[in-house]
Amino acid sequence: MTAIKFWYEFASTYSYPAAMRVGEAAKEKGIDVRWRPFLLRPVFAELGWTTSPFNLQPAKGAYMWRDLERTCRRMGLPFRCPDPFPQHSVAAARIATALADDGADGARARFSRAVYRAEFGDGLAISDQNVLAGLLEAKGFDPFAVTAQATADETKQALRAATDEARSHGIFGAPSFRTPDGELFWGNDRLDEAID
Amino acid sequence: MTAIKFWYEFASTYSYPAAMRVGEAAKEKGIDVRWRPFLLRPVFAELGWTTSPFNLQPAKGAYMWRDLERTCRRMGLPFRCPDPFPQHSVAAARIATALADDGADGARARFSRAVYRAEFGDGLAISDQNVLAGLLEAKGFDPFAVTAQATADETKQALRAATDEARSHGIFGAPSFRTPDGELFWGNDRLDEAID
Question: Core-most of A34, A142, B124, B152, by most CB within 10 Å?
């Protein structure tokens, strides 16, 4: 089965609607999705940025919140601005990395959607270990076992390697989609084109 | 007749496909388009940028060129990278400002489409007065009369005022669309949503 790679960062705003629809959109076309969490912080640091570009450019940031609100309303998704923005996403990314990437309704996909929903739907702090443990539990995982795996050196290295791989593909933001022929598509707006 | 305002900058890459389709897309919904040329340079200068963000972020720039090429192919538009990028756009913007904004097939729209086509379809230098004069002539305008009007203080001031107005609406990039109820939409990808 052909698969596209869905590269996402838990702090990324437009990754929220993309994560919520990528599975169904791909399934309609008979395509599988590989879930690839990575970190944008090292990508931004290389440009000298210490925070989200939406904070560095206030007019663009104000527009993005309004546009994201419209996008969520159109999709019937709840929406709340997380505070602070961006959220520290490394703990959630390590957990997602530790979970198996076994398809559209697999462990990694279910946890990742729950994180986005908590962060941008309920405004919860996804840097909070209790919040993350609660999400794991709600999705039927053992929070203690998964957290132990998530904080193991092996997982930390796997996340760093994923971030390096993203950069090697020319990925500079999230969400990004990479097709088997190496084409890159950036943004929730390009999800359907990537699948087509 | 309801009208949306189409804010564009001649150096802006995604303003090319937007300019080529905004008239027809609006007409299909019985909506008129007001053409609003402005300059992004002062907007970028405020952020400390001296060139296009696509040059400041090479990975994003490389992606944009590939994405724009795909977009143009899908629309059946010719595509060439202008060299240098970004082009100096002030002379073209002053001419567009000097021409009457009289609807989808009016003077300003016809000249503006010709500029984008020359720049991103044929790779011509739109900072070159001879290129601009040629475009004016090809579209049935008197190059001498229009150029005289374009370089008058009144026109320079009108373009500065348009740029100030764009910023006052929170516009930070091009193309942008503003609906009569004050909603802002950014990017060629949001043209249809703006019209809807």
Answer: B124
